[in-house]
Write a structure and sequence with these properties.
Number of helices: 3
CATH superfamily of the largest domain: Gcn5-related N-acetyltransferase (GNAT)
Number of domains: 2
Distance between the termini: 33 Å
Structural class: alpha+beta
Largest sheet: 7 strands, mixed
Low-confidence stretches: 1-19
Number of strands: 7
């Protein structure tokens, strides 16, 4: 049975040879806003990063997709962290569908991502 993990002392690696804790630090300015879902071996199976009211990252291991883990993390972000916004790559149909299922709606679109690359982004906001 997996455990919900919050920001203190994150485990050393993500299952399947994925990210190591020090690699996550390169992506996430502060681990203070990172929340993880761990398996029985204390390996990260999913994680969420929230900055202010924005869901910045959500990653769920393929084996756990469709099993409610992403939903638990998003509900935590909404209910406990007051997250109301998320940006999704327009080509990420699965992600867009997931966020729509979680009551987010598209409010705007950008041609370029935050790094100026040619990846159109959909800006979504939680419906009230």
């Amino acid at each position: 049975m997996a455990n919900f993990f919050t920001k203190k002392n994150p485990p050393s690696s993500i299952s399947g040879g994925g990210f190591k804790k020090h690699e996550l630090r390169e992506f996430i300015p502060t681990l203070e806003n990172m929340y993880c879902y761990l398996d029985d071996k204390e390996q990260i199976q999913a994680f969420l990063f929230v900055d202010n009211d924005n869901i910045e990252m959500l990653f769920v291991h393929n084996d756990l997709r469709g099993k409610g883990v992403g939903k638990k993390l998003i509900n935590y972000a909404i209910e406990k962290l007051n997250a109301t916004k998320v940006d999704v790559n327009e080509e990420n149909k699965q992600g867009i569908g997931f966020y729509k299922h979680m009551s987010f709606k598209v409010i705007d679109r950008s041609e370029l991502d935050n790094a100026g690359r040619n990846y159109p982004i959909l800006h979504m906001e939680l419906e009230k």
